[in-house]
Prior knowledge:
The protein is an alpha/beta fold. Helix content is 54%, strand content 13%. A five-stranded mixed sheet has the order 2-1-3-4-5, sandwiched between helices. Strand 4 (98-101) and strand 5 form a beta hairpin. Helix 4 packs across helix 5 (112-145), helix 5 (112-145) runs parallel beside helix 7 (182-191) and helix 7 packs across helix 8 (198-213). It is elongated, with a radius of gyration of 21 Å.
Amino acid sequence: MNVVIYARVSTERKEQETSLVRQREELRQYASQHGWQVVREIEEKASGFEMERTGMIEALDLLTNGEAEAILVQDETRLGRGNSKIALLHQIRKLGARVFACDNDGELQVTEMEGMVLEILAIVEEYQRRLINHKISRGMQRAIAEGFRPEKNLKNLDQGGRKRNELPIEEIVRLRAKKLTFEDIAVVLRGLGYEASRATVHRRYREYAAEQEE
């Protein structure tokens, strides 16, 4: 199994450097004991209550791209605290990935209350996904009834008549800002006549983000 090592401390104090080193050493040993391949080691100094941490986003990207199947942490607090922890666990589960913690020598366990919250989130998101798909379907049916033919949409064809995967980045960014997953965005774009997969949408979004940083 390919895994990501994630080490975190909450302050910039110099003495915390030793904690990061210790966490990484323990996690390397833990991965080695189980015969897991470490694809990336990530460390950062940020509060566990923050969800948009650069290092954690990098770890999630590796899970999204299929480069890793799990995240290794020293204990549950390293992943996050409070609502941040719940949100991250929910996202990781959606990606079909797992979290392992050294302190309990196994997969990260959640409390009964946390489990209930995660189940509710999954139910709500599934309902929202179905609602979005239903709206797209109704919209496409109306458009087709009025004469629209997606297969003849010239904006999506090159000169040889082949469909292009040049996705509308403005639409991707707008939908992402509304907290839609890359899979949901792909569904929306397919409803608009584009050949869009989750992986392609995610890649275009990352390219856009990199261009903005430059």
